[in-house]
Specification:
Length: 584
């Protein structure tokens, strides 16, 4: 089974041919059964492979417009067997945490990070992310269960066994970005089957697998409240009491990089002082609110592993940002009003793209790629697909074909036929001529002129926990940037894998494969990679010899002008395998 865009396909493993008895001649439409009309603008994908249980394939989806229901598909026929409504329908438990009939209009609350099937207890553990849109929740008052929750399901029926919400009414994009981790812990002289979830906030929550009871105490603490009209933030948020966070939570002037140039230090100092800056859950605001860790994390997808001794290892990126609300049309909304009739492409860019990529198209590399000269670096098909489907942290945009053509022409691609007056009149897309609905925030990562975070390094770390006691064993930098020893990476893309022999393996953005000692955090071995790795390293054995393989596929020339100027096209789309030395 594999996913591509909106569909899931079933192949005969022996021949590679489609299994025509599965769904519609070998595939099913992942958009079906999500309570949304199947229009061309509805985009749904599955970023995680799902889990097989008996004759069921259980999977989640990723997408902003549709709810992220968890569904079980019959592996033979492709028919839907059961559905867990991550946004509850009317009459279901916890529907009161949403406006009436929210399931008909709200999106998100999906599982894009993977799920975990516990074969010992027969329980499926699912992490669900925040509701959409990010940063602005006026249209979805309430705690919004089951967003930002770990949910334990019966994989046979989809029945909810227990849940815990790690963050109420998310307006920070603080997802649960990892599949739950299973551990066997020793607590009070007895063994406990535990399940662990880590958050972008840097917090760790640990529960009894069967009951959902917290292994370590969790306290609801008062948090700052939103000053945005109509926004009703939760008065409290859950905080782990015993397990220390693995990420920097909060930002002060003292956290700035000592090597900043004086004018840059002055600018950032002023920015920090004039923004709302009240700790981890400072709500997004019109004047700007400091986010630390930022919306990238803390931790992110596939960046955590456990071992047989109850230890947990997690990669964390400390990349602060500024959550500053602006009209949903973007910072270029006023400019859009002036230009839409004469240049609909410019109007579309300013209304939808400039908030993140900048009016000058320079972006914030490597976090937000530059679009300056994009037509010389990327094909039109790639950019068209990126706009309509989204990519990495960029959400998809629903633009009619004539508007998308006009936007691409503005970015330097072959000009389409002259747009009709109707296209010009509607060039705002989501904004239109009316006042934009709601507000949004761009990532606004706090970078220095060097293209790296403005805070003290290391910017990415690898932390080891003994979860039997909930204590940190060691913490080390995770990779380096060219010329900056032990700086950590900026946006770690390679995931980590652990071995029974006590090693942690990972490839990182500096194109290096490393092995760390689980006991000490010391780097024992490293080797160059031909390109940026992605995905989880595969550990396997052939004739008694251990191998580890990693896909090294990524190359983005828009990042080469920033801190990652060691990138090259050499080795792009490679699979690289290493082996332990052969025994004599």
């Amino acid at each position: 089974f594999f996913h591509s865009n909106d569909r899931m396909y079933a192949l005969d493993a022996a021949t590679g041919k489609l299994v025509e008895s599965f769904g519609d001649k070998g595939s099913i439409d992942l958009r079906e059964g999500l309570d949304r009309a199947l229009t061309p603008s509805l985009k749904v994908a599955a970023q995680a492979p799902g889990r097989i249980f008996g004759n069921l394939l259980i999977l989640g989806t990723a997408g902003e417009a549709a709810p992220g229901y968890i569904r079980a598909i019959d592996v033979q026929s492709g028919k839907l067997v059961w559905t867990f409504h991550s946004i509850p329908h009317q009459g279901e438990p916890n529907a009161a945490d949403w406006p009436k009939d929210a399931w008909k209009t709200q999106g998100g609350v999906n599982n894009w990070s993977g799920m975990t099937l516990d074969t010992e207890t027969g329980i499926l553990f699912v992490t669900l992310v925040g509701a959409k849109p990010n940063y602005y929740g006026v249209d979805r008052p309430g705690n919004n269960l089951y967003s930002n929750s770990i949910v334990a399901l019966d994989p046979r029926t989809g029945r909810r066994l227990w849940h815990f919400q790690t963050l109420h009414h998310d307006i920070w994009d603080y997802d649960l970005p990892q599949a739950p981790k299973l551990l066997k812990l020793t607590r009070g002289g007895r063994q406990v089957d535990a399940v662990l979830v880590a958050s972008k906030t840097g917090n760790i929550f640990v529960f009894d697998r069967r009951t959902g009871k917290p292994i370590f105490p969790i306290e609801e603490r008062p948090v700052p409240q939103s000053d945005v009209p109509g926004e009703r933030t939760s008065p409290t948020q859950p905080f782990p009491m015993a397990v220390p966070p693995f990420a920097r939570q909060g930002l002060s002037v003292a956290d700035l990089d000592p090597s900043l140039e004086p004018d840059e230090r002055k600018r950032l100092t002023q920015l920090i002082k004039q923004s709302r800056n009240e700790g981890l859950f400072t709500p997004p605001s019109f004047r700007g609110s400091i986010q630390s860790p930022g919306s990238w994390g803390g931790t992110n997808m596939d960046n955590g592993v456990t071992d047989r001794t109850g230890h947990y290892y997690v990669v964390s990126a400390d990349i602060p940002g500024l959550a500053k609300l602006e009209p949903a049309g973007g910072t270029g909304y006023d400019l859009f009003l002036k230009t839409k009739a004469t240049d609909p492409g410019a109007a579309l860019y300013n209304a939808n793209c400039a908030a993140c990529h900048g009016a000058d198209r320079k972006g914030q590399p490597p976090a937000v790629p530059s679009l300056d000269g994009i037509a010389k670096r990327r094909t039109e098909a790639f950019v068209r697909a990126t706009v309509t489907r989204g990519r990495n942290t960029m959400p998809p945009f629903e633009l009619p074909p004539e508007q998308l053509d006009a936007l691409l022409a503005h970015l330097g691609y072959k000009a389409p036929k002259a747009p009709s007056s109707g296209a010009a009149a509607s060039a705002a897309g989501p904004g239109s001529e009316q006042k934009p609905k709601g507000y949004r925030s761009s990532p606004n990562f706090l970078f220095s002129k060097r293209g790296v975070p403005a805070t003290k390094p290391p910017w990415t770390t690898l932390t080891a926990y003994d979860m039997n006691s909930g204590t940190i064993l060691w913490k080390v930098p995770y990779g380096s940037l060219p010329g900056l020893k032990d700086s950590g990476q900026i946006f770690p893309r390679g995931a980590i894998a652990g071995t029974a022999g006590g090693l942690l393996f990972a490839g990182s953005q500096d194109r290096v494969m490393r092995a760390w000692d689980m006991k000490s955090g010391k780097i024992l071995w490293q080797a160059p990679l031909p390109s940026i790795p992605g995905g989880v390293p595969a550990v396997y054995q052939v004739d008694g010899r251990q191998f580890i393989a990693v896909p090294a596929a990524q190359y983005d020339p828009s990042m080469a002008a920033g801190a990652s100027n060691a990138l090259s096209k050499q080795g792009r789309n490679s699979l690289v395998a290493f082996a332990l030395a052969a025994q004599e």
